[in-house]
Amino acid sequence: MSGIDALPPLRAVIATHGLVAKKALGQNFILDLNLTSRIARAAGDLTACDVVEVGPGPGGLTRGLLAEGARHVVAVEKDARCLPALEQIAAAYPGRLTVVPGDALDVDLTPHLTPPVRIVANLPYNVGTELLVRWLTPPVWPPVWTSLTLMFQHEVAERIVARPGSKANGRLAILAQWRTVPRIVLDLPPEAFTPAPKVRSAVVHLAARPEPAFPADAAVLERVVAAAFNQRRKMLRAALRGLAPDIEDRLIAAGIAPTQRAEEIGVEAFCALARRIATP
């Protein structure tokens, strides 16, 4: 018995299917099913939700999500070696797990989902940030998902929740905090994973805001934030010179000193500046 269901322990699953984690795929497996259940619980009540999981591997978090009552889990897996193990889980939870082979960066999951939708994943390290940015920047808001509960390297998690004045403050913090309420809900040491990574990890829960925290055009805000942090050591009057010839006046009108640097600025001020940039 595994402790949360009648399926074999994860170490046995890995041995049976030869699922040695591949560094090229950013794989680090969590084998403690009590821990995967804790991660699932951090996502909130899943009983009335469809859940998207990216990179389930041998299915530890998948089993946690199903055991915690997720209505339906749609798991996207790029590694074909993992599919037999996931199909075994699907058989144990009839009608509640759909396994979609493919790359999460390319696959359209919309046909498999019925709202409300939550995304819960121990993201592969090599695509985690790219996926997060995609989820935070859909064509329309609010998005199809109501929350993201995601595992990152601890350094990335700190960048998501960083405050103005922190060295970790950057593009990721602005994009995340503009449209969601992010918080770190769980810290994990390297030994929680197989193989153990060289760094600590953390689970971040991001609850989608019905509307962004402050008004701003998304495309303009992204352009302003990208320009500001691409040259974060420069004063904003220099870093943003290419956005408008009178950038100093627009900074002052937005309540920002032209001599400030990007890491000193928070979401509200960046949105105010984006509105000034968008005005002819």
Structural class: alpha/beta
Write the CATH architecture name of the largest domain.
3-Layer(aba) Sandwich
Low-confidence stretches: none
Mean pLDDT: 95
Distance between the termini: 66 Å
Helix content: 25-40%
SSE pattern: HEHEHEHEEHEHHEEEHHHH
Number of domains: 2
> How much strand content do the residues show?
15-25%
Shape: elongated
What does this entry show, briefly?
The protein is of the alpha/beta class and 280 residues long. It is built from eleven helices and nine strands. The longest helix has 13 residues, at 218-230.
Question: In words, what does this structure look like?
Answer:
The chain is elongated and about 65 Å long. It folds into 2 domains: 10-208, Rossmann fold (3-Layer(aba) Sandwich), CATH 3.40.50; 218-278, Helicase, Ruva Protein, domain 3, CATH 1.10.8. The longest helix has 13 residues, at 218-230. It has helices at residues 10-17, 33-42, 60-67, 83-92, 128-136, 154-161, 171-179, 218-230, 236-239, 247-253, 267-278, and strands at 29-30, 50-54, 72-77, 97-101, 117-122, 145-153, 180-188, 193-194, 201-208. The chain contains 11 helices and 9 strands. Strand 3, helix 4 (83-92) and strand 4 (97-101) form a beta-alpha-beta unit. It has a 7-stranded mixed beta sheet with strand order 4-3-2-5-6-9-7, sandwiched between helices. The protein is of the alpha/beta class. The model has no long low-confidence stretch (mean pLDDT 95).
